[in-house]
Amino acid sequence: MFGAVQYSLGPRPPRPSLDPDGQAARQETDDLIAELGWKVTPDASARELLAATLAALRRAGAPRGPGPRTYATAMAALAAKEVPGVAEGASGSGKDNGAGKDSGAVKDGGAGKSRVELAESAVAGMVLYERVLVALHRLAQEDASARLFGDR
What we know:
Elements: H1 2-9, H2 20-36, H3 45-60, H4 68-91, H5 115-149
Helix pairs in contact: 1-5, 2-3
């Protein structure tokens, strides 16, 4: 169910073009997923999104920053905390997954919830927590900048 919800959310970006930037980005994406040992389907929308975004970064000549592997490692640690909470909500165990109160798990452990209700809860959590991640990333960047270059 979790995978179906995630794939339904998309986005469905176009496949990167076969120009050199698109080819390099596709290869970089495939290599990263393989290096990390992630079990991701070849048609995963997030795979396409990553490749398309890496190609756009190449075309724009944008600074690379710490690189996709750094972000992937951080996201893998986060996903390791998130996914058990979704599974526990679906099973009705209500057990704490070690992520604390902010785990995003269904408050009552999912007891008595239908698959539709759990899917709706998962969609809301995925969409809203993506916004939390973006906001926290920007706040952390502002903080790092202030620390590096001095207070505003």
